Amino acid sequence: MNVQNYFENGETMDIAKDMLGHTFTYNSDQGKFSGIIVETEAYLGTIDMAAHSYDGRHTPSNDPLYQAGGTIYIYSIHSWLDMDISVQKAGVPNGILIRGLQPIDGIEMMEENRHQTGFNVSNGPAKWIRSFGIRDKELSGTMLNSDKFIFSDKKVQTPKNIQATPRIGVPNKEPWTSKKMRFIVEGNPYVSKIYKRDLNLETYGWL
Description:
Layout: H1 3-8, H2 12-18, E1 23-28, E2 31-43, E3 72-77, E4 80-87, E5 94-105, H3 107-114, H4 125-131, E6 149-151, E7 162-166, E8 180-185
Antiparallel strand pairs: 1-2, 1-6, 2-5, 2-8, 3-4, 4-5, 7-8
């Protein structure tokens, strides 16, 4: 896969939906961590009041959003770290937040890093980052599939149903607060803030 083409040649919302079912891998000093992407959240750059690049804001920290599609952007929120992937061509600072991963490789080490077991290991954007042992922003600005972070060429699972919901943690930004720009594999237990009644523990929401 040409990662840059994937993240630059499509509508941001469509890319955010299509990422569901692809694997995300981190080849770290601790070993290999990987998971299937089950939840994403789109941010539409300069027009999006919830985006870090809203109204053209451009700082050394959020510069990765302004780089070529497929660039990693790691940032801090309340002493935790989150990760976006830049989308669209350089200069158009759209991003997609990876919010939830269903673990594949390195599960025992993920549990150790998080001091948690079960779905709580990676059912949230800061949770999976911590479980992968990422503690700083050192790799922010690196390109997917060029170093330690790998996005799979193809889906390894196909969602039975993709549900669109308002984003999480975006208060007081109407009309952007209510826009359905968060995409989840419906029923997957590694989706953040999912109700127990909505869990599909048989297929995890895959076909």
